[in-house]
Structures are given as C-alpha cells and as structure tokens.
Amino acid sequence: MTDPILSIRNLTVDLPKGGDRPHAVEGLSLEIMPKEIVCIVGESGSGKSITAFTTMGLLPKALVPSSGEITFDGRDLLKLTPAEHSKLRGRRMAMIFQEPMSALNPCYTVGNQIEEMFEQHTSLPAAERRARTIRLLDEVKLPDPERIYSSYPHQLSGGQRQRIVIAMALALDPALLIADEPTTALDLSTQAQILHLLKELREKHSAGIMFVTHDFDVVAEIADRVVVMQHGRIVEQGSAEEVLNRPRHPYTRLLIDAVPRRTRVARDSLEGSAEMLRVAGLEKTYHVKGSMFRPGRTVHACKDVGFAVRRGETLGIVGESGSGKSTLVKCLIRLEDPDAGQVWVEGEDIAAYSRRALHPYRKMIQIVFQDPYGSLNPRRTIGDQLVEGPVNFGGDRAEAMARARELMKIVRLDPDALNRYPNQFSGGQRQRICIARALMVEPKVLIADEAVSALDVSVQKEVLKLLNEIRDRMGLTVLFITHDLRVAAQVCDNLIVMQQGEIVERGSVDQVFGTPSHAYTQKLLAAQPGQDWEVPDVSKLPPATGVMGMGGLA
Amino acid sequence: MTDTTASESPAMTLSKAAPKEAPLSPRQAMVRRALRHRGLIFGALVMGIVIFIALCAPLLTQYSPYDQDLLARMKPPVFLGGEPAHWLGTDALGRDFWARLAYGARISLMIGLLAATISAVIGSVLGILAGYFGGRVDMAVTFLINVRLAMPVVLVALAVVALFGGSLMVVVSVLGLLLWDRFAVVLRAATMQVRKLEYVAAAEVLGASLPRVLWKDILPNVMNHLIVIFTLEMAHAIILEAALSFLGLGVQPPTPSWGLMISEGKEMLLFEPWLITIPGVALFFLVLSINMLGDGIRDVTAPEGRN
Amino acid sequence: MLLYILKRLGLAVLVALTVSALSFSLLFMAGDPAISIAGENAAAEDIAAITERYGFDRPVLVQYADWLVSAARGDLGRSWYFDLPTTEIIGDRLGVTMTLGLLAICFALLLAIPMGVAAAVKPNSLIDRAALFISVVGQAIPSFWFGLILIVVFSIKLGLVPASGSSSWKHFILPTVVLGYYATPAIMRLTRAGMLEVLSADYIRTARAKGLAPRKVLFKHALRNAIIPVISLAAVQMGFMLGGSIVVESIFALHGAGYLAWESISRNDLPVMQALILVFSMFYILFTFLADVLNAWMDPRLRVG
User: What burial class does residue A251 get, using C-beta atoms within 10 Å of its C-beta: 0-12 exposed, 13-18 middle, 19+ buried?
Assistant: First the structure.
C-alpha cells in the first residue's frame, strides 16, 4: 500500500474569542492517497473550508491552528514558516476556488497569470514558459489556446475562467489539489464539464484531490471517499459507496434525507381546476448601454413566452443563468414593463395596465426572492414589514397585525418575534418571514424565485415542505423558478424549460424528465451530477451507530 | 423575549462571560458600538464643549466681543505672562480675546450647521432621485453635479460675497448652494445600491407608493451616509467660512469670526504669534472633532443585517 | 471609441457653457457694472458714457451672447483695471499656478501612496496610526492657518525659506507643502481603503495560493488594482487644487492666477473674474477627462471589450 500524500492528525483550529463556538475545526483527522478524490461535505459553518485553507496555509490571521499536525511531503505543515509554506504552494500543492469570476486578476492576461507559476517556481526560459502555458490551456480543453492566452479574464465565461484556474493549479504537477466548492457558482452544464475534466485529470496526473462541497450529488459523481463534517468535527467518514448508501451517523442521514428526490410526490389530479394565470406572447428586450470602448448591444430576454397555470398547480420554470427566467418574473410582478404580450390573472389582462390601474391587481401576484439577506429591510421590524402590504391596499393596521401573528404561526415562527429586526433571524427563518409577507395580501399566485437556492439542504427541505403545505391549504398557484432540476422534480406538477429567452420544452414533470424532446433539455438532464446514485430511504436503514460527534441539527 | 436596554454600559457587557443574550435590535447594537468607539467619543466630547461655549458665551465671560479698550491692547494670555482679567489676552483693539473666541464659536457653528443643512437638502433630494430613477433623471442630475464640480468653490464664493456684501445670510447661502455635490454623489450611489435590493422590489410588489418606498425603504438605509456627509460638509463649511473671512470676503468686522481673528492677527505675525495660534487651534479642534464624529458614525453604522 | 470621445467632449462643452452662463449672470447682474468701473461717486454722465461704451443697457442675454461669441474666438474680454486682454493677463500668471499645482500633487502622491499602502498592509501598526494621524490632521487644519504657521516657523524663526514672492524655486517650497498637504488625506484614505479591499479580493488569494513571493503579490497584483481609482482621484484633485490655489497664493503672495483672482475681486474687475472662473472650470473638466482616459487605459475591463 502506498503512503498517503496528506495526513492530518487531530487538527484543531481556534476561532477568535467571543464567537458562537471556541473552535472552527476540532480534533480532525483524515488522509488523502495519490489519485484519490476525498470529498469533505458539510453545511455552511461546518469547518470544511477552514480545513482546506489550513492545509494551504491561507488561513485568515484571526484563525490559528492550535494543535495537531498536517503531514505532507514528510513535513509537518503547521511547523513551517510562512516562506517555506509559500514555496510548497503552487509547486507541490495547488488550489481551485469557488468563485471563478473573481479568482483571476482583472489587470493581467490569463497567459501572464499562468506563466507566473513557472516564473516563481522554475527557471524555464520565456519561450518554454509560454509553450507550456499553451499546452496547459489545451489540456483543460479551452478552444483556441493562442487567443485565450492573450485574453483578459473579463473576456471569458465563468466556466472558462474556472478552467484557467485549474490549468494554473496543474501547471507544476502538484501532489495535492484542493478544490473548494469549485462548481458551486457554475451552471449545471458547465459544472458537468468541470467535474468530468477533474476526473480525467486525476487519471493523467498522480495528484490526490481534496474536494470541498455541500452537494451530495457532486459527491456521488466524483468521490472515492467521503468525510462528513458538522460544527468543526468529523461525524462520519468512509468510502463513497458506504457513506452515500448506508450512512451510519444521524447527521449524515439527515443531510442525505434532505436531498430532494428525483421523483415527484404524488398529488391529487389538477383536472377541472380553474385557470389562474395565463401568459401569451410576452416579449422583453433590453438595450445594454455601451461604454468608452464597447458598443451597446441588445438582449432579447423574453421571446414570445406563453403558458397557463391552474389553481393549485405548481409550475416549475427551469433554466440556467441568462435563460430569461428572471426577466419573465420581473415582467409578471411588473417591476419591468413587458414590451408586448398579455398576462391574464383570473381573466383580466393586466400586462398593459398603467401603474395606477395595476395597483389593485398587484396583490394577486406575490413573490419570494432568492437572497434571504437582501429581501428584508434591516431598518424595519418584521411586524412593520408584514403589515406593509395590507396597509398599502387600504387595510386596517391592527387587523393586519392580527393576521401577521396568524401567519407567523403558519410559517412556524414565534408571533412575538414580530417586533424584532431581520438581523436577529437566520437565513431559513428570513425566507419564512418573506413567505409570510407575501401571504399577507392573500395572493392568488405566489412566485418563488430561486427561493431555496441560498439555503443549506436541511433548511431547504423545511422551506420546501412549508411551501407545499401552504399551497395546498390556501389553494395557491405557485410559479417555482429554479436552476436545480432535483428540486423542480420534487415540488412541481408541470415544467417549463427556458433557454435564451425562449421556452424550449414544456410538459408534466414525468414527461420532461422521462421523455425530453428538446436537445437542450436532454443536455441539461444529462449534465446532472450523481445520476447513478439512488438516494437511500434512511428510515429503512439499521439504527444509527458510530456517533462520533454530537448528532442532530441545531 | 428579553429586551436589552440600550443604555447598558459596555463595561458591564464586556465583563460578563458573554452568555447567550437575546440578539440586539440594530439601534441597540449601534449604540453599543458607539460607546466603544474612542474617536467618536472624543469627537462628540469636543464638539459638545464647543457647543456649550457657544450657547453659554454670555455666562462664560463678562466682556463683550465688540467692546474696545484702547488702554488694554495686545495683552498676552496668562500662560504668556498676562493677567487673569483677560486670561486669553486682548487683541490690537483691546477686545477680550476669550470673549471673541467664545462668541466666534457661535458664528462657526451656525454657519456650519445652516450651510450643511441647505446643501444636505439640495444634494440628497437630487442624489436619491437620480439613484432611484436612473435614466434621464440620473443624466440630468449627473450633469448638474458636473457643473457644480467644475465651478471653483473659493473663487465663486469670494466673488459672490464681494458683489453681494459679507452678511451672514450671504455667506451661509453661498456655501449652502456650493457644497451639495458630495451629498448628491454619495447618496446617488448609495440609493442605486439599495434600490437593487430585493426588499425594495418586495415593497413595490406589495403596492407601496413611490413616496412611501423612498421614505420607508430607501431613506432609512442611506441615512448613515447622509449623516456622515453632513458632518464632513459642516466641517468643510466652517473651514471655508474661516478662509473667506481670512481673505476679507466672509463675514465682516467687527463680527467675532475665527477666520477674521486670524486675519487680524496676521499683521502682528512677527511679534504676537499667539494672536493667530489661539483661534487657529480652536478652529482645528472644532473641525477635527466634527470629522472624528463623522468617521465614528461611519464606523458604527457600517452595513448591518448581512452576516 | 471615437463616438464616445465626441460624446464626452460635447458634454464637457455643455458643462463649460453652463458654468460660464451661471457665472456671467451672477457677476453682471449683481449691481450696475458701470458704477463698479466709474466708482461710487462718479458723475451721472460718466456712468452713462461707460454704460454706452460697454453696452450695459442691453439685455443680459444679449450681453452674454456677445461675450460668448468673442470667447469662441479666444477673446475673453478686456480687463477694466489694466485695460489689457484678459487672456494675456491670465496667460502671464497661469505658469506659476500650474507649477504650484503639479508640485503639490506630486508632493501629495509621494506622501500619500507609500503611507497608504504601508498602512493597509499592516493595519493598526505604528505606520497605520501615523498615516491616520496625518490624514486626520490634514483634514482638520485650515490651509491658510497652516501656511501662516509655516511662515512663522520656517521663514521668520528659522529663516530657511522666503515667506513670500515667486522669484525662485525656494519660494515654492512652503506653498507646495500647504497645497499638497491639503490634497493628501483624501488620496491616502483612498489608497488605504482600496488596498485593504483589494488585499481581501479573491484574486489575491489565488496569487498567494500560487506561492508567489509576498512582494510580487503586493506590488504586481494588489497595488496595480488599487492604484486605478487613486490616479483618477489625483487628477480630479489637481483640478480642484488649481481653483483652490487662491488661498495659498494670497498667503505667500505667489503671483499666480489665484492671486490674480483675489486682486481682481478686490478691484471689481469683472471680465477677469469671469475669465478666471471659466479657465479654472476648463481645467477641472480637462483633468476629469484625462482621469477617465487614464482609468480606461489602466483597466483592461474598460479598455478591451
């Protein structure tokens, strides 16, 4: 058996005093073998990224490793001076980051930035450096390496930039590659390409890969071994097959159980329900203004969009970034005026109504946004924000307050919390408040615009459940906008797939997932990670064992 | 839920071993940070003293700032061997220096406050409208800002005072009309940022009228910028008034203005440097305290709500 | 690109026009200009003659149009005091002011950028505190008073440099320090804040993950990005400083355009004042334009589409 490339023993990293816990990482031990992909999984705040940064020696100054050892190349990394650690970085260990859009310096060409690796760590002549850089660009499958070489980062897409970062990391054939959520910020199809690339590179190079992620689908796609972390501790580790299919620790089970199933929860038929919302021929074009050196351009964000939703139905609108789904939403809630087309709500075409005429219809369509931190005014109490709607539509404040207390109970929050401010709530709680706020005006249609995308899986599950419950209880029509096919499959009745402003596919969830007709839909479905993994039914597993840390969710 | 009172002393909360407390409201958290901010405390303290002196000037000295006593000219202050009767000495016309300094604080503070208020109103209305509406409104406001920035402030102010006379009203209005640019620039940018946040969209979707959105959702969230710029421009106006008066084109003698006092002392620069030092130091500390107050406010009202 | 520059130029002309119209109406409507020329106690027929000669009885709009037409031909009117073309008088004085402005901005940049960078690299260190001190004091100190204090200390007590005049390079030392120090706090703060922001940027983490030497991370990757807004601020400050040189020039009796402005105001020489306001605003407009171009030249995101 070969020796591990990296071996972490009993690592503890302290948090600054006054935090909610004393250690960011506590008593952590793990090993990574050559050619092995070890996934570290956990929700936000679990300490997974801290582990990666400690190994790289890139921890923020406030965090200090207080005990343990990290053996790499026969040396304890924690005992190295910053200069010695710096010499290992890039040459023996390299890193790929989450945000490809900001990971490259905007002032230099990508060729220059890759070549820096050779400049710093080798004494190769300039011509050789350039040749190697071009070869790297080719290896990470970037088209036209010569052109890419002299491009600036802003001229490349997110996926292309991530390839540049990977090329940079591979430049000197490091023994250890650390990838911190490298595909989280990417579209589904780009993610699939990057994951594929990483698997391929693992074959060609001998590096061991530490892959930090929160997404079990990605784990299923790529991992050899899995380490599950919670609150800075490892709660479970083992082979991917074992952990994914037979998780032992209650926390792992909880996480896996929260992964949305690809199958839909069976529902009553919607036959005979009245049509609630109909959109026809909706068009929207944007003119992007040019700058000193760039001509303006025109973006056709919505092209002849049309669909109908019935009362009690959940319609999923699926698409990658730039598909026009956000523009569609803005036109529906009339933050933007559509250029053409009709929007009927209960038989009334409101698309061309003026602001004034629209006012009474505004409450019919309400929305829950993606960012739980941006969608509540930090300077107003929750109660004040909840009664905003009814008061605007001429309601009585005291009555509205009573209804707000009612709704707080429905979204499972303490009604007494109405006089608190948003900063006193967690992300999941805020999303529930936003749902309550939307429901205050008794809308007919609720738009959930990526409403669960920013939440941890376990929280996501709760909010999804709540949304379904409310829909059934109040007979709401829901438009569910998402880029996440799994979530869409689970909560929607019917689906629309959008690409570049157009609807390219529509049908029931089973139709779209089972027999997709459009090439783009097929491509999207094929790009989903971890398709071979069937999420196990944790209730059928033997009782939880091997409790290494504290179980349960706080 | 427990309500932690805002007046609770920071020392107490620090000494406690930080048990799980009920989360603070934004205002409470801000007051706590303010009480721990040394610059802010210093600024508030010094400014408080100057305000006190300005308000209570008649109680703090028995002299009038205008009464000349030609027999008691150029008396040095006590620390340079003068007499306690005029503890800061007297000027070239025998006027009590302390009385002129104390009454001069009124002029400085009044001009600072009034001019900054005028420019705050102009600048923030323009900035918020430009930031909220964008498009043509923004273009028009940006043009106005450019025009304003292209006008040399000191030169225009001097010319106006020379043509219209150096009354307090003229000085306040000309400074108020010239110093609104920073309000407009900063509030425009801040409003653009807030406008993009989803709670503004949510309020619109919930049927809030435009004035209501501006008043309830935009203004409170750009208020911290407004206050910070207000302190900066107040300090700016005070310095400019002093400079105008120094050049002989601000408020006119015998009004006790600190700038005028420095200007009058300039003639005796060689022999009696304290004549310019004392009002200069007073001016410096007033402006310093206002700036530190502003910086402190910026620090303690830094974006909250986002973790 | 060309279209953009044309647009930008058009805007600049529009701004200059508005400024000139504003200042013209302000200056020539604030009283009877004929009385200003003839003096308070002049005889009625003298005033009438002057009104006749300069055409003050015409509507202001006509007078402004008249001024504008000659301004377009490069004639900014004649000084009432010297009875010489204003362009000639201002041209004579502008050299001193430009020299002072350039020296001052160099002084400010040389002081502010190294200190700002050092302060950002080691927050809360001694140098950070020193930088903070310099900028806080610089913001609060009235420049006319600071000038006087420098004169007392360096000219009168120590006798190192002359207190007033503009005949040798030594005369420029104190004014440069005063005017430069006036511009320092803003530049220093922006450098420090910009560096702090850039140092926490993702691409700096990438550079460190590549194992680059700290010096290279700092200068090649961080400073290059942080310096862009500083350069454009400096250009704008330069525009401000020319207009603000009036105070400094009058303290040090430096015979530049600012000093001329002060003299003209006390002499009621409206054509010179009007011309000076225009000239100073043109400089501001020019420098902001240069700032934009520099910005675009330094930032590939603006340069390469």
Answer: buried
pLDDT tens for B211-233 read 999 999 999 999 989 999 999 99
**What are the DSSP calls for A84-134, one per residue?**
HHHHHBTTTEEEE-S-TTTSS-TTS-HHHHHHHHHHHH----HHHHHHHHH
Q: What is the DSSP letter of B184?
A: H
| Residue-wise pLDDT tens digits, C105-138 | 999 999 999 999 999 999 889 999 999 999 999 9
Pairing relation of β-strands A494-499 and A477-482?
unpaired
**Residue type for C128, please?**
D
Q: Give the Cα separation of A387 and C201 in Å (integer).
A: 40
Q: CA nearest B292 in C: which residue? A: C136
Q: With a threshold of 0.90, does the pTM exceed it?
A: no
For residues C9 and C285, give the distance between their C-alpha atoms in angstroms, rounded to a whole number. Answer: 10
Distances, alpha carbon B231 to alpha carbons A328, A379, B89, B95, B234, in Å: 44, 22, 32, 32, 5
Q: Which of B232, B250, B241, B247 minimizes the C-alpha distance to B287? A: B232
**Residue C133 forms contact with B (CB below 8 Å):** no
Q: What is the CATH number of the domain that holds A419?
A: 3.40.50.300
Question: Between chains, do B1 and A417 touch, taking CB under 8 Å as contact?
Answer: yes
Structurally, how many domains does chain C consist of? 1
Cβ–Cβ gap B150/C19 under 8 Å: yes
Whose tokens are 């209570």? That residue is: B56
Give a yes or no: residue C31 inside a domain: no
Contact B160, C26 (CB under 8 A): yes
Number of H helices, E strands in chain C: 14, 0
Q: Which residue of B has its CA nearest to C270?
A: B159
Q: From the CB of residue A412, how many other CB atoms can be counted at a distance below 10 Å?
A: 11
Residue A499 CA, chain-centre distance (Å), reads: 19
Q: Which of C211, C221, C302 sits opposite A90 (nearest CB)?
A: C211
- Residues C96, C253 contacting (CB under 8 angstroms): no
- Do the domain assignments include residue C265? no
Domain with residues B30-305, CATH architecture: Orthogonal Bundle (1.10)
Q: Report the number of distinct structural domains present in chain A.
A: 1
Say whether the ipTM exceeds 0.85.
yes
Query: Pick from A366, A373, A385: which is nearest to B305 by CB?
Result: A373
Q: Does B203 touch chain A (CB under 8 A)?
A: yes
Asked if B159 lies within 8 A of C31 by C-beta distance, the reply is no
Residue C2 in domain: no
Place of tokens 């323009």: B126
CATH of the domain at C122: 1.10.3720.10
